[in-house]
Structures are given as C-alpha cells and as structure tokens.
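Most newcomers find our protein records easier to grasp once they have seen one. Sequence and backbone structure share a record, each on its own labelled line. To make this concrete, we reproduce a full record directly below:
***
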Amino acid sequence: MTDAEIRLPAEAHDRLTAMAATERLSLRAYLVRLAGMALPPTGGGEQACTALAALKAWNGYDPSPEQAEALDAELGRRVAEAVTG
C-alpha cells in the first residue's frame, strides 16, 4: 500500500486522533476504515433512492421537493456545526 501525506489543520488532526482513540484504532487505521465507508461519487444517488422507497413503503415518508431541500439545508447546517464544534 502506498502512503500519502495529507495536510490538515492541527485541530482537525487532534479531533480525528481522539475519534480514532475512542475506537482503539490508530489514526492511520481509522482513516483507512473511514475511507472505506465513503460512497463512490455515483453510488450515493442509487442508495438514496432505495432508502426513500423503503421509507415510503414503511411509513409513508414522501417529502415534496421543497421539504427535501429544507431538510438538506438543515442537515448541512448540523454537519457544519458538528465539524466546527
């Protein structure tokens, strides 16, 4: 396996190291696992459609385009808040 150097802010490094430690992993092992969980650029759309179909069948969840946009914005806001602490 070829190694790569990644430059990131010290705060992000510290946060990732702490997250890895909670799972008793080295930072390297944690990042390898995290990279394996990432969806390929084309894989997310199909998975999202499957999830929406399952939710609709299970409980009738079927947001309008406006509702979906508002939910996406809220999710983006929460992720940004979690990342910046």
